[in-house]
Amino acid sequence: MSQDLKTWPHHELGKELSNWGRWGDDDEIGTLNFVTPQKRVRAAGLVKTGRNFDLGMPFDKDGPFLPGGFRVNPLHVMTFMPSDTAQAPDGLITADDMVVMGLQAATQWDSLAHVGYDGRFYNDVPVGTVKTTGGATRNSFAKAVEHLISRGVLLDIARLKGVDRLEDRYEITAADLSAAEERQGVRVESGDILLVRTGWYQWFLEGDRAHFMGDEAGPGLDTCRWLHDREVAALALDNWACEIWPSQLPGANIPFHQVAIRDIGLTLGEMFNLEELAADCEADGASEFLFCAPGLKVTGSVGSPITPMALK
Amino acid sequence: MSQDLKTWPHHELGKELSNWGRWGDDDEIGTLNFVTPQKRVRAAGLVKTGRNFDLGMPFDKDGPFLPGGFRVNPLHVMTFMPSDTAQAPDGLITADDMVVMGLQAATQWDSLAHVGYDGRFYNDVPVGTVKTTGGATRNSFAKAVEHLISRGVLLDIARLKGVDRLEDRYEITAADLSAAEERQGVRVESGDILLVRTGWYQWFLEGDRAHFMGDEAGPGLDTCRWLHDREVAALALDNWACEIWPSQLPGANIPFHQVAIRDIGLTLGEMFNLEELAADCEADGASEFLFCAPGLKVTGSVGSPITPMALK
Amino acid sequence: MSQDLKTWPHHELGKELSNWGRWGDDDEIGTLNFVTPQKRVRAAGLVKTGRNFDLGMPFDKDGPFLPGGFRVNPLHVMTFMPSDTAQAPDGLITADDMVVMGLQAATQWDSLAHVGYDGRFYNDVPVGTVKTTGGATRNSFAKAVEHLISRGVLLDIARLKGVDRLEDRYEITAADLSAAEERQGVRVESGDILLVRTGWYQWFLEGDRAHFMGDEAGPGLDTCRWLHDREVAALALDNWACEIWPSQLPGANIPFHQVAIRDIGLTLGEMFNLEELAADCEADGASEFLFCAPGLKVTGSVGSPITPMALK
Amino acid sequence: MSQDLKTWPHHELGKELSNWGRWGDDDEIGTLNFVTPQKRVRAAGLVKTGRNFDLGMPFDKDGPFLPGGFRVNPLHVMTFMPSDTAQAPDGLITADDMVVMGLQAATQWDSLAHVGYDGRFYNDVPVGTVKTTGGATRNSFAKAVEHLISRGVLLDIARLKGVDRLEDRYEITAADLSAAEERQGVRVESGDILLVRTGWYQWFLEGDRAHFMGDEAGPGLDTCRWLHDREVAALALDNWACEIWPSQLPGANIPFHQVAIRDIGLTLGEMFNLEELAADCEADGASEFLFCAPGLKVTGSVGSPITPMALK
Predict the structure, then answer these.
(1) Contact A86/C at CB under 8 A
(2) Measured between alpha carbons, how far is D156 from D276 in angstroms, rounded to an integer?
């Protein structure tokens, strides 16, 4: 329990925007419920040229994490090599591999079991439902996997502001989102998967992990109501925290995550590479596309590594 | 080098069906080149009702592998728990997790670096390009990831034969594939991702791992020319080996894999759950859909875990 | 908190035998304090012939654990192979490897952070000192590692009872320990590391994992006072639980562990292979030796894999 | 095969010093054969005061490896937490953990399967005996584990030279070893486990990983004959490579390893913390002790993590 619950403004906001019970007491996917079959049909209809954009960060030892932290870069190891079939009469060669990785390593989804507060996750789920052995028994990403195909919309806040990348700790506001819509001639609708570009991914592309993983631009609490009202299904950014870091609210820890994930029931995506897609959207004036990033159905998982795709 | 290269019939067949050089000497994705932008546009156009089918096996400790083999079931572990933020002033709780798993654990793609013979992989790539440190430096699955969205077609061989599941070691032939097309009123075309149902997945659903991982029904060498001529982009089955096991060719090891992957350049999928999708195709008479299973862009990877989706 | 604390007889016993505070409020190693420098000098003096006995179970995929449980057998993987140095001008070949394993896989020590009750570990350490990230911040095995060299004494309860191995669920009593001392002509003293043989390891050697990991013979609560009074430094058995399983006390979970580890502060060892050593002790009539099993200093660890050695 | 075998001076030296066949064609432990039972008896007799020195580096995420290399620091994860037994009627709490680590992470032994040249490991073992699945089928560390208890002797080259730590790339010579013996009044004998101090470990203690893992002082090829003639059983240093790095022989890769491991059959130890032990040896004038570092019996292993102990 937080020390003085009533005084935390993000918790007050969360109460206002809460979607608990909206899709029943047993619901585990929150705003992904906005991705209806009809939504998917319309999303598929956006594919006009068949161009495909890979929005994923590679999973490998040269990933974003600095040494010594609690998240580590993926470890890829071979488990079978061509030399292991040297005796095959017909000359067979074969290879197998394995990976040791955080489900939050590189490009990823945060499920509704990832963040909560005051002992509760989304939809009044008690903290004890996440177990060391077995993982998330409620709100697991495994429940979300099939819902992550919908219309994608990109809002480019860096271009809105006329910069390559936003400044450290720039707070993206609801007004920014609306202004980006207006500039790009697109409107975020119910069931959309919203991709917000800060330009932050350029730090990673340039090899500056310390800056990429440092104080970052991102949405502030101010955007929560906007995201709630527009019925966004999932939100993804091109930085590591999916929100301004550190928070501008003293004493609060990732308050945007708290409200977005726990109260609104919003699945969040991190470390998306939006550079090429954004350039294309700017070039052709079309900021909507078929977005597809189902991830992996790992039982009890809190998150999922993904290589997301956008088809235009 | 195999003991007497000229006498192996599957290698003779492979020479005939070889796609080496067809897309240039540097090509690393083989028949996935058939998935053109135009193909993706047409595939997206197949989404009529928005119903989504999850074709994935869960990734967890209760996976298909029996103890003692070289492939093991996924190990999911929590790396951060709500108790770790007990001191957060605002009551934050959060969870993180990791996985240790073969990239061939459960539902998966085999890349063109997975199988070859006589010291060569697809497109004349030497065996030494697969390294213990770094993995596949050529033909890696990381190159394939963005190409695995296309039209999917399901051919149901079990229903063709009027059985729940095919018999152990039943060899699926080219004639079976053509007969299934005729029965279902669909024709496999260039760039399709072909899903072939044997009913084998039922052994897994029933908990009989030993049977599921044992002698199985699947395509024989006879289907290679058919798959080549139809310009299939990728092939996936609902069993563990994607081909009849053991081979009917004495002394040969997974000869279908050898020809399909190394010579034709065909990406193979394994352990797809086709039960629900097949029932739906039978019910509505539509065996085509938008298929989406991009997998994970793991640098140097030979395969990829996936949770594939079919949208109708 | 247990439902009705006062009524649990093992907790009453624990209170009587408690060593909390005996070596100061900051002590983290409990009865390993009995292993004094003088004790080590005398233990070294027991080496008469230089014969060495390996008491370890191999660490590999064919370990004791059945599939589906929360403990899994070790996974050993190569990370560097001779083929990776194929370009070395001077013909260098080299190999490296890694392991994924539970610190409780195969032969192992349980530290004082492994088991407690009513929210407390040994020496009044609160449950929250074990963290998901960082592990045991108190009572970690890392603190114990240098103390696990002392005089070892083997008591062979199977031979005492005239059997190859004890019956399932046979409860070893204090009287058994004393009788074994008398039969073998040895007396357990302060600072000894006591090895108690049930013959159970034979189930593993015969490949019967299910029996090995099943209901087992082992010490009951009755032995706690004896172990406490004799000032045993550490206790190890040749079975998986180091105590009779299941407990004969209805509703109690590994009550011997609870009292031994939490209250007495006794480090426990499991899955020791005592077969060869016991035969030698029987043959030469000497049941004491220099025992050495320091284990690994893994920061925050709760246990340690070991390959223990006995020198006579 | 190296490009011009006859011209490599370290291979010429290796031929001269070869112990192949000395202990039979099936021998897999090389100079560890010098550790006879009699040797162990005499070693145990060295324990006079019972003081124990822990020579190990902690195994954890803050280990010596810089990011991006093929060796990574250990990853310790909890697999069972007290919260997982919240329902236990008697209040039981318990914790379990696991580790993902290179067997060469932190303080470790290199087995005779670790390094060779020209397609052969120690005792004419072909390169193909190291398999990706299964590891080292010959010369595995699992064979060595019980032999790593013997007399230990410390030679302090840093103190010999009057410095805290040797300069980068200082080459330790046979003359240095003899001079250190003379200064310390000790003589290295058959079956000894020799610890050579460079002072290099101080870089690690100071947190300068880049320097610790960089160009280092260590034995050159010149010491091989000395080590061979003295019948050293195993050699360990306080740096990462156990030899001068980079080699002073142009084009040669870790040539000391090649001769020592492959030709002499000498087990090598790395990253030993000799600081405290060396100070004690200097203070009391006794440079010999009972050395004990059996390591882990991992089937097929090439190396082993250890926490070595020295008893005086």
Answers:
(1) no
(2) 12
- Bridge partners (DSSP) listed for residue B15: none
Instruction: Give the one of C83, C100, C133 whose C-beta lies nearest to A70's C-beta.
Output: C133
pTM of the model: 0.94
Chain D residue at shortest CA distance from C60 = D299
Q: Quote the minimal CA–CA distance from C165 to chain D in Å.
A: 25
Q: How many CB atoms lie within 10 A of CB A149?
A: 26
Chain D CB within 8 Å of residue C113 CB: yes
Alpha carbon of A79: minimum distance to chain C alpha carbons (Å): 6
* pLDDT at residue B107 is higher than 50: yes
Contact B66 C62 (CB under 8 A): no
Count of Cβ atoms closer than 10 Å to residue A283 Cβ: 8
**C116 has a chain D CB within 8 A of its CB:** yes
Rounded Cα gap, residues C234 and C293, in angstroms: 11
How far does the CA of residue B10 sit from the closest CA of chain C (Å)?
Answer: 28
Q: Using a CB–CB cutoff of 8 Å, tell me whether D87 touches chain C.
A: no
Between strands C108-110 and C267-270, the pairing is: antiparallel
CA dihedral B47, B288, A54, A38 (to 10 degrees): 20
How confident is the model at residue B83, as a pLDDT? 86
Nearest to B115 by CA among B93, B133, B96, B141: B141
pLDDT of D242 > 70? The answer is yes
Query: What pLDDT, on the 0 to 100 scale, is given for residue D1?
Result: 43
* A67 in contact with chain D, both atoms CB, cutoff 8 A: yes
**Alpha carbons D258 and D247: distance in angstroms, whole number:** 12
With CA atoms as reference, the chain D residue closest to A87 would be: D128
Q: Determine the 3-state secondary structure of D217 from DSSP.
A: coil
Q: What is the CA radius of gyration of chain B?
A: 20
Task: Please report where in the chains the tokens 């079309």 appear, as a residue.
Answer: A286
Cα–Cα dist B223/B232, whole Å:
11
**N-to-C CA span, chain D:** 46
- Please tell me whether residue B209 adopts helix, strand or coil conformation: helix
The CA distances from residue A148 to A237, A297, A302, B40, B308, in Å, are 15, 12, 15, 18, 12
Q: Is B38 on the interface with D (CB under 8 A)?
A: no
pLDDT digit string, tens, across residues B189-240: 999 999 999 999 999 999 999 999 999 999 999 999 999 999 999 999 999 9
Say how far apart CA C126 and CA C1 lie, in whole Å: 12
Per-residue pLDDT tens digits for B18-76: 999 999 999 999 999 999 999 999 999 999 999 999 999 999 999 999 988 888 899 99
**pLDDT mean over A261-274:** 98
User: What are the two backbone dihedrals, phi and then psi, of residue C148, each rounded to the nearest 5 degrees?
Assistant: -100, 35
Q: Is B83 on the interface with D (CB under 8 A)?
A: yes
Of the listed ranges A170-184, C146-160, D71-85, the least confidently predicted one is D71-85
Give the gap in angstroms from C-alpha A47 to the nearest C-alpha of chain C: 43
Section C191-215 average pLDDT: 97
Which of D83, D100, D132 faces B83 most closely, judged by CB atoms?
D83
Tell me, what DSSP letter sits at residue D80?
E
ipTM of model over 0.85: yes
